[in-house]
Amino acid sequence: MTTLAITGGQVLLPDNTVTWADVLVDQDSGEILEVGDDLAGGADDTLDASDSLVTPGFVNGHCHVAMTLLRGHADDKPLDAWLQEDIWPVEAELTADSIRAGTELGVLEMIKSGTTSFADMYFFVPTIADVVDKAGLRARLGHGVISVGKDEDAVHEDAQEGLEVAAEIDGMADGRITSAFMPHSLTTVDGQYLSEYVPEARDLGVPVHYHANETEDEVTPIVENHGVRPLAYAAEKGMLEAEDFFAHGVHVDESEIGLLAEAGTSVIHCPASNMKLASGMAPIQRMLDAGVTVGLGTDGAASNNDLSMLDEARDAAMLGKLAADDASAVPAEAVVTMATQGSADAIGLDTGRIAAGKPADLAVIDLEQPHLTPRHDPVSHLAYAAAASDVRHTVCDGQVLMRDREVLTLDEDAVLSRATEEADALLARADD
Ligand SMILES: N[C@@H](CCSC[C@H]1O[C@@H](n2cnc3c(=O)[nH]cnc32)[C@H](O)[C@@H]1O)C(=O)O
Ligand SMILES: [Zn+2]
Prior knowledge:
Layout: E1 3-12, E2 18-26, E3 31-36, E4 45-48, E5 52-56, E6 58-63, H1 79-91, H2 96-112, E7 115-122, H3 125-135, E8 138-145, H4 152-169, E9 177-179, E10 182-183, H5 191-204, E11 209-212, H6 216-226, H7 230-236, E12 245-248, H8 254-263, E13 266-269, H9 271-276, H10 284-290, E14 294-296, H11 309-324, H12 332-347, E15 362-366, H13 378-384, E16 391-396, E17 399-403, E18 406-407, H14 412-431
Parallel strand pairs: 1-4, 1-5, 6-7, 7-8, 8-9, 8-10, 11-12, 12-13, 13-14
Antiparallel strand pairs: 1-2, 2-3, 5-15, 15-16, 16-17, 17-18
C-alpha cells in the first residue's frame, strides 16, 4: 500500500465542524484511510497543511467546461439573445482541437481552485473524457442534445450520439468518469424526443441532466402548450427520477418544490450565471427547507466568468439572502455543504465528505492570509472570504494533482498558450 498523509492542519468534517487532525490516504485504492492524530509516521508521501484547512475537493455540479474559450467573448446579455446571437454561432465552429484546448484550460482552473469533480454537458465528449482522465479529475460527462433549428434526422442523430457517448465513457478512467443523458432543456428539446429517448437512457442506467426553469421565458411556453408547470411536464417525460439533476431552478413555484422533494430530483444552483444573465433569484432557502438536494455549479465560463467554486459559494449565500429578503437565509454552512456533499449527492458521486472509506478528493486551503485573519470560523471564511488562489494542494482519488500551487498533471504554460491560440482561431472562423 502506498500512503499519503496530509498533516498539521484543520479538517472540515461532514457535519461542518472543524477539527485539528491529519488525514491518511491509501493512494492505491484512492480512499481515505483515517482522520486522526499523528498519522504522518511511515507515510510514503506528505502534504503540509499547517496554517491550512483541509476540505473535501469541491464538486462543480453543472458546467460546460470548454466554454472557457468563450470567456469574455459575449458579456452583458440575457440568456436567449446571448445563446442565439453570440454563443451558438461560435459553438458551430468548435473542433475536437478547440474542445481539447478549452477543456484543458477549464480543468487546469478547476485544479487550481480546489475542484476535484464536476458534471459537464457539451460536445466532443470523448475528447473531454480523455482530458479529464489525464488531468486526474472525476467527472460525470455527457453530450448536450438539442432539437431547435434541426431537421428530424439531425435530432435523431444528436440524441443517438448522446446515448452512445453515455454508454461508451461510463466507467472510464478506473471509474473516475461516469456519464448521463443530457437533453439541453425542456424548451430546446421537443417533447416527442424526450418521450422517445429518456426511456432509452433509463435502459442504459444513466441519469438525466438538463437545464430547467432558468428564465420566465422558458416557463411560459410550457405552461401555454402543455397546461402544466415545467417540472410537472418534466415528470410526465420521466425526467424527475431520484438520480436526475438539472441546472438552475430559478423560477419554480411551491408545487414544483414539492415535486422535487417527493421525487428526490436534485437542483444545481448556478448563482453567478443567474445574476449575470439576469435570469432571476432561485428560492434556495425554500428548497432547502422542503428537503430538496441542492448542489452548486458555475455553469460555463462565458456566463460566470470563472470556474471557482469558492466564488460560487459566496454568490450563493449572498443571492440566497436577497431572494429570501432574510440575512439568515442560505448561511455559510449551507453553501459549504452545497459546494461539497450537495453537489456530490446531486450528480451521483460518492465524494464531498472527509471520512474513512470515502474517496480521497481533497483541497487544502492556506489560511495564513490577510483576508482570512483572524480565524474565528473557518466555515465562514470558506463561504465568504477565501479565494481560488488560496488553494495550496489539490488531491483527487488519492493522487496529488497540485502541490504548493504547482499543477502536476498538466503543463500550465502550454495549456494557456494552446487555449489562447484555439480561442483566437475559433472566433476568427466564426467571423468569416
Ligand atoms: N448538441 C447540442 C449542444 C448542447 S451543449 C450545451 C449547450 O448549453 C449552452 N449553455 C451554456 N450555459 C447555458 C445556460 O445557462 N442555459 C442554457 N444553455 C446554456 C452551451 O452554450 C451549449 O450550447 C447542439 O447541437 O447545439
Ligand atoms: Zn448550463
